[in-house]
Write a structure and sequence with these properties.
Layout lengths: L1 E12 L2 E13 L4 E5 L6 H8 L7 E6 L2 E2 L5 H11 E4 L11 H10 L5 H14 L15 H13 L5 E5 L7 H16 L3 E5 L3 H4 L4 E6 L2 E2 L2
Parallel strand pairs: 3-8, 3-9, 6-7, 7-8
Antiparallel strand pairs: 1-2, 1-4, 4-5, 9-10
Length: 220
């Protein structure tokens, strides 16, 4: 499903360049559940952003389901991401001017579902995540933990082919965190490929394999 060859990410620093990722060689198969671990500054979130096609400023080759992401024009790359990828961001990235229910509906709008079906899926998701009472609230009216629950719900609502999660349980109580990880396992068993970034050994244990990054390199 995913193949990266010699992927590098850098930025100008004075007279030279500072590398964030170095010579990344990575293969992730359909239905895999991969955990990326490493110290702060290792390049984990940057790698996740490239995998999600949010960052196109890199060198090397990235193939997603046979498509050369590194060669796609911006609009085609965005469309490929919208239709295949779900995100759980560390900073949530909920839209402040939309209610919880409206935030949840956004990924479904990329799947060409009728409006009535979208409303039904949103209702089911609100119920599954125990946030029905929050559906008409705006993100600013929610606690950090509640915002994270909404962010996870939005990421999984359309059953994405690829789910990318950056510290998905960081603001949740331990019991909520286990519920989210159990949900990820069920999604994975149903066919979703999952890549999570985490510092938690407990969360990492839910996955099938671990990739360790250090100073931008994959640690062998």
């Amino acid at each position: 499903m995913i193949r990266m060859q010699n992927v590098e990410k850098s930025f100008r620093s004075g007279a030279g360049r500072t590398f964030v990722l170095r010579r990344i060689e990575l293969e992730i198969g359909e239905g895999d559940f991969v955990t990326i671990m490493g110290p702060s500054g290792a390049g984990k979130s940057t790698l996740l952003s490239i995998l999600g096609m949010l960052d196109s400023e890199f060198e090397g080759e990235y193939l997603f389901a046979g498509q050369a992401v590194h060669g796609l024009p911006p609009r085609a790359r965005v469309e490929l991401s919208k239709k295949n990828v779900g995100f759980v961001f560390q900073q949530f990235h909920l839209l402040d001017d939309l209610t919880v229910a409206e935030n949840l509906e956004i990924p479904l709008s990329y799947r060409d579902l009728p409006a009535s079906e979208r409303k039904s899926v949103v209702a089911d998701t609100l119920d599954r995540f125990h946030i029905v009472a929050k559906k008409d609230l705006f993100p600013s009216q929610l606690s950090g933990g509640q915002q994270q629950l909404v962010a996870v719900a939005r990421a999984v609502i359309a059953r994405p082919r690829l789910l990318l999660a950056d510290e998905p349980t960081g603001n949740l109580h331990s019991s909520q965190g286990r519920e989210i990880m159990d949900l990820f396992v069920r999604l994975n068993q149903a066919g979703s490929t999952i890549v999570q970034v985490t510092h938690s050994d407990e969360n990492a244990a839910y996955g099938k394999r671990i990739i360790r990054l250090k100073d931008g390199w994959i640690d062998p």
